[in-house]
Specification:
- By secondary structure, the chain is of the alpha/beta class.
- It has 3 domains: about 15-135 and about 275-305, D-Maltodextrin-Binding Protein, domain 2, CATH 3.40.190; about 140-260, D-Maltodextrin-Binding Protein, domain 2; about 310-440, 60s Ribosomal Protein L30, Chain: A.
- Helices cover about 30% and strands about 20% of the residues.
- It contains 14 helices and 18 strands.
- The strands form 3 sheets. Strands 1, 2, 3, 4, 5, 6, 8, 9, 10, 11 and 13 form an 11-stranded mixed sheet that branches.
- Strand 3 and strand 4 form a beta hairpin.
- Mean pLDDT is about 90; it is low at about 1-30.
C-alpha cells in the first residue's frame, strides 16, 4: 500500500505534521511488510503496542524492537517474520485514523467510538465498515469522570455532568460538593474519548474547558494536582485520581467496574474497535485482528487495563422496583458479563453480539459450566404501548435463543420484561438502544 517505510519521507500523508518517521538504516525496498495502525490515542498508548508485540511473539517473530517516532503519538515496531517487518502505530485520535484510511494510508483504524455515518459513507470503497468483515470490537472501556482524590463528592448524574462541562455550573457547591470553583479539563477534539463523551453526555452543548489534552495520562496528572478539577479519561488512565459513580436518568448510580462496563450498564461504557477494509491488502492484518480477539489477545487487553470480552459470572444486585418475576429469576443466580444488543430498528444482532454468541457457546461448553441452567431475559425501550414493548422484548430474547440453539445450546428459560428496568433514559436514540437488550443469567 502507498505507505512510506522507515528511511523515506511520507510527503503525501494526510496530516504531514504526523507523517511516518524516517528511521535510519532501512528502506522501503528492504522491508517485506509495512503495516500501519492509526487512530485512537486511548488504544495507541496503552493497548496497541502490547497487542502487536504479543502477536509477533505468538507468530514466532524474532528481533522484536520498538522505536520511537517523530511525535509522541507514533512508534515503530520492527521484527523479523520470514523477512523484515515494520508496523507503525500512529495515534493522535480516532478521526485521524479514519482520515488515513480514506487516503489509503492505513491498514487498521484504531477507534474509541463507532464509525460515523458520514465516515462510513466516505470509506465505502473499502467496504461497509459497519459489517462484521470490517468492524471488530476488541475491548470494552468506560469513560471515567475523574476528580481530585480529596473531593468528597462520590457521584454525579449525566445531567449534572452536562451542566458542569458546558459551564452552566461553575462551583462544586451547586452539585452538593464543597464551596470550591470547578476547573474543567478535556481531551482534544481528535480524540474518540472526546467524541464519545460529547455524544453520551453533552446533548448538543459544547464543552467549555480551561485546557485540552492530547494525552490522557497528562490530563489525569493535572486533575490529580489541581484543586477543584474534573476531567474524563479511559479506565486505564484513572491513575491516582478519584472516579465518580454516574447516574443516568432513573437508573442507579454505577461506578465504572469491569462488570458494569462489560454489560454496558455503566452510563459511559464504550466499545473499542479495530476497523479494517473488507478485504485487507495484507493477510497479516486479518491475523492481527483475530489474535486481538482471541483468548491470548484478550489477556493482553486485561493487562493493559481495559475490560476484556471474555465472559465471567457475578452475583448481581436486584434493582429497587424490579418486577417480582425478575427478582425470582435472578435470586440465587449469577449474571454473565455480556448483554446482547441489536442493530438500530432491527432484530439483527450487532457485530459484537455475533462474537459474543461464540464466546457464550464456548463458556457453557467448559467442564465447570456444563449442566448449568441458562436464562435469557429480554428488555425493550419505553416507546410504544406496554403490551407492544413486552412483545418486542420477548422477540429479542427468542431471537438470541434461536441463534444459540443453532450452536447446540438450548436455554432453559426465556423471559421478557418490556420496558422495565431501564439502564438509560428513553429520550435519545442512544439511550433507547442501550435499553433494548438481552441479559444472560446462569444457575
Amino acid at each position: 500500500m502507498p505507505l512510506a517505510a522507515p528511511g523515506t519521507a511520507d510527503t503525501a500523508d494526510p496530516v504531514p505534521a504526523l507523517a511516518m518517521v524516517p528511521t535510519s538504516g532501512t528502506t522501503r525496498s528492504s522491508a517485506k511488510h509495512v503495516i500501519s495502525l492509526r487512530g485512537s490515542n486511548t488504544l495507541g498508548v496503552a493497548l496497541a503496542p502490547k497487542l502487536v508485540r504479543a502477536f509477533l511473539a505468538h507468530e514466532g517473530a524474532t528481533d522484536i524492537e520498538v522505536r520511537t517516532g517523530k511525535t509522541k503519538e507514533q512508534v515503530w515496531i520492527k521484527a523479523n517474520l520470514d523477512g523484515p517487518l515494520w508496523i507503525e502505530i500512529n495515534t493522535p485520535g480516532t478521526k485521524y485514523g479514519f482520515q488515513s484510511l480514506e487516503q489509503d494510508y492505513c491498514d487498521v483504524v484504531l477507534a474509541s467510538r463507532p464509525v460515523s455515518v458520514d465516515e462510513a459513507g466516505k470509506l465505502i470503497a473499502f467496504g461497509d465498515l459497519t459489517a462484521p468483515a470490517s468492524e471488530n470490537v476488541v475491548a470494552m472501556d468506560g469513560i471515567a469522570v475523574i476528580v481530585q482524590p480529596n473531593n468528597p463528592l462520590d457521584q454525579l448524574s449525566v445531567a449534572q455532568l452536562a451542566m458542569i462541562f458546558s459551564g452552566k455550573v461553575t462551583n462544586w457547591q451547586q452539585v452538593g460538593g464543597p464551596a470550591l470553583p470547578i476547573h474543567v479539563f478535556e481531551r482534544d477534539s481528535l480524540s474518540g474519548t472526546h467524541d464519545a463523551f460529547v455524544s453520551l453526555v453533552m446533548n448538543g452543548a459544547h464543552i467549555k474547558s480551561e485546557k485540552t489534552f492530547e494525552d490522557s495520562q497528562e490530563l489525569a496528572r493535572t486533575v490529580q494536582t489541581t484543586d477543584g478539577a474534573i476531567g474524563f479519561v479511559g479506565l486505564p488512565y484513572i491513575q491516582q485520581t478519584k472516579a465518580l459513580a454516574i447516574q443516568d436518568g432513573d437508573a442507579a448510580a454505577l461506578y465504572p467496574t469491569p462488570f458494569t462496563v462489560a454489560t454496558e450498564d455503566y452510563a459511559l461504557s464504550r466499545r473499542l474497535f479495530f476497523y479494517t477494509p473488507a478485504t485487507p491488502k495484507d493477510p497479516l492484518t486479518g491475523e492481527l485482528v483475530e489474535f486481538a480477539m482471541s483468548d491470548e489477545g484478550q489477556a493482553v487487553v486485561s493487562d493493559a487495563g481495559f475490560v476484556p470480552l471474555s465472559l465471567r459470572a457475578e452475583a448481581a444486585k436486584i434493582a429497587t422496583g424490579a418486577p417480582a418475576a425478575y427478582g425470582k429469576l435472578a435470586s440465587g443466580a449469577t449474571r454473565l458479563s455480556v448483554d446482547f444488543r441489536f442493530r438500530l430498528n432491527s432484530f439483527e444482532i450487532d457485530t459484537k453480539a455475533l462474537h459474543d454468541l461464540e464466546r457464550l457457546t464456548r463458556y457453557l461448553a467448559s467442564p465447570v459450566n456444563r449442566g448449568r441452567r441458562l436464562a435469557l431475559v429480554g428488555f425493550a425501550d419505553a416507546q410504544g404501548a406496554d403490551a407492544t414493548n413486552l412483545l418486542l422484548s420477548k422477540q429479542r430474547a427468542e431471537a438470541i435463543a434461536g441463534l444459540l440453539k443453532r450452536r447446540g445450546v438450548a436455554p432453559d428459560e426465556v423471559a421478557s420484561f418490556g420496558s422495565a428496568l431501564p439502564i438509560a433514559p428513553n429520550d435519545s436514540p442512544q439511550g433507547r438502544a442501550r435499553n433494548r437488550r438481552v441479559e444472560v443469567w446462569l444457575r
